[in-house]
Every structure is written in C-alpha cells, then in structure tokens.
Amino acid sequence: MRACHHCHAPIDALYTIGYATVCPSCAKSLHSCINCRFYSPGSYHDCLEEVEEDIIDKMSANYCELFMLGEDTDSREQKKAEAKAKAEAFFSN
Known about the structure:
This protein is mostly helical. It has one helix at residues 73-92.
C-alpha cells in the first residue's frame, strides 16, 4: 500500500505527486527520498537507481526525477515476515 512514511496515512494510487506535494494528513513532503520506492539505506547514495547527485537530507522535498512513491515501511516489513513464515513452514515439512 502506498503511504506517507511520516504518518503512515494511505496515499491514493491516482494522487499525482509533484515536487511540492505534501501529505494530506501530516503536511510533510511526499516527494522525498524516504518516501521513494528506490530508497535503500546502504546503497550508493542510498538509492537503488543510478543517481549522480547525493541528496543529503532524505526527509525533505527534492527534485529527483526518478522519484516514485513507495510502499509504507510497516507493510513492507509485514510482507517480509509473512514470506519468511511461509518459507519456513514449507521447508519444515
């Protein structure tokens, strides 16, 4: 589910996100690294895409053209846990 990283409010898939778009719930910037599906701490510039410019403040709005709103981190962690449980159940038989 697409959601704001800050308040975890769901964001409609049809909602257009520009550089200055803020979350309708908490009014924090949606167009930021922390909300991007490519955000990956530990990767080069903390991004899975090949970005040339390092954005220091990952929480603030930026002008990255590769931005795509990602899933809520809580739902991602839940999906990982469910997949791990299914794999463990499959291989334990």
